[in-house]
Amino acid sequence: MTWFRSKMAQLDIRPITFNPPLLLVLIFLAFVIVGCFMLKLPIATTHSISWIDAFFISTSAATVTGLAPIDPSTTFTMFGKTVIMLLIQIGGLGIMSFAVFFVILLGGKVSIRQRQLMQEALNQPSFGGVIRLVVWLLVFSVTIECVAALLISTRLVPEFGWSRGLFYSVFHAVSAFNNAGFALFPDNLIRYVGDPVINLTISGLIVTGGLGFTVLAELLSERKFRKMSLHSRMMITGTIVLNVIAIAGILLIEWHNARTLGKLPLGEKLWAGYFQGITPRTAGFNTIDYSAMTTPGILLTVFLMFVGAGSTSTGGGIKLTTFIVLAAEMISFIKGRPEVEVGKRTIGRHIVARALTIALTSLILVFVSVFTLSITEQASLERILFEVVSAFGTVGLSMGLTAHLTVCGKLVIMCVMFLGKIGPLTIAFSFLKRMKANIRYPDEDIFIG
Prior knowledge:
Oligomer: single chain
Distance between the termini: 62 Å
Number of strands: 2
Number of domains: 1
Shape: globular
Radius of gyration: 23 Å
Order of helices and strands: HHHHHHHHHHHHHHHEEHHH
Structural class: mainly alpha
Number of helices: 18
Largest sheet: 2 strands, antiparallel
């Protein structure tokens, strides 16, 4: 090794280095490719599937999205379904989280480089305490998933038997906590539209996984709401408010729609409205047919999918805190205030700039993708927009377009899922970290609005 380094020095050859965001992208891409090859194995499927479908399912599982051009319940064997579950678990909690955890288990030391990658992956302001957070989130996640699997098994074991019922329970617990939306039933969860155990357990996992690991850690360590950080208070309050508005909106809009809620008895109608108000927050499970929803219901769902879950959570979207910061900036500007204030705290201008960058980057990505699919696919703009935003928010809800996508359409949706999982935030951080020049140019006004 010393000889090799001396030769490199003599030839002036420097080792290739990657900044943390780019390295995370490459690691994640390699993870998706490995998943694709595993899903293409003969033991993974009941019949042969194309490479593009294997790559699509691997991307969808690793990005915890849930979109699928083929039916996972009938296409994949128990081995294939296990591969999908592992892709969901590792993709949801983070590849670097598992890597660091195994390094610790084997008695190794975590390098500064690995800590920087963990800081980037978990969106932490510094890498101090990031290892403790990794260990905590893995232990907490597995514990929550086990408890949820036991609850779900009380419903599925009597229906499918011990072996299949327990596996299905674990699979859906992992899928729900990681906000993936993969279900092992051809109709997703429509058959359980009025089942309290399934509705409450799955929705509870969705909300828990969508809050973000830093919020969950603070909830367990600090019981008084007022003493929590501003981020945690924003996430908890915002989640409650947005979920209540979403549930009320779905119930109001779809109440008389005979193709969705209108045909259901009162009890099932309330459960369906509740579940459809929760699941667009990047989860992807559904207990009604989204292709039968009214236009207002679809637009409300698109908005919820675009906003998404919390930062450092298993979900996607622009993130709820990003939306709140943008709303606070708008209100501050209208009121003529120079600073952005939330919860009697001032939000730094760099945070506002980051939120604007994420939102604008996301909108551009959605527009370009919708524009491209409107050329390649024979579908209405409504269905294309729904599909793209679902992929971007790593939600997994579909109006039935996924199964009919062309090869080009599948590639576009795969890119959107990939960028929706690691893109906007990572790209924004990459650009912000490169702005090192401290140059101040003269001011000049322009006309806007």
